[in-house]
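My convention is simple: the sequence line spells out the residues, with the fold written below as integer tokens. I include a record here:
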Amino acid sequence: MTNYLPDNEMEESTESDWLNITENGTYRMRIMGIKGDDNQFLEGWEVWEDYEDENGSKRSRPHRSKFVQGVKAPQEFMELDRNGDARYFWMFVVFYEGRPKIYEVRQKTIRRQILELTRDDEWGDPRDYDIAVTRSGQGKETSYNVMPKPKEPLTPEMLQRVTDAKIDLQAIWEGGQPFGALESD
């Protein structure tokens, strides 16, 4: 018998390194990267450019620029956006469903609720507890709620898996892949 084609099934989907909250439901995660840890946290401006690929198909791609306190996104950067507007975002490493992922937060409601927790004396450092982000609704009626979970220390496994992933979010600025980008010492 001759093998003309592979005798195995292609996986339906590959698991993403990004946590995308696109479906209604609750997403429980541990924030691993905080401000000051440039490899695991960054803040910036994002625009989405519509374009046609080499096959004539309509596509969209993000462009990101570093955030500087007190400085608006450059006009030429905003002109790339399909709506002429730049959106502020946070991007940080989270531990979700047993592995490190990158979570980009564009929604003001999520950022505000996380900030409230970090400013609260009883909660503080978001690496000390999980948060559950619940998404409900559709379109302009979509809402988000952030709920802290009881404090638990980071486990050695969590820390090791993040270390092993060698994530460097700084690769984003050059359009690179953050996973595996961190140089070993």
Notes: Residues 108-119 form the longest helix (12 residues). Residues 18-174 form one domain.
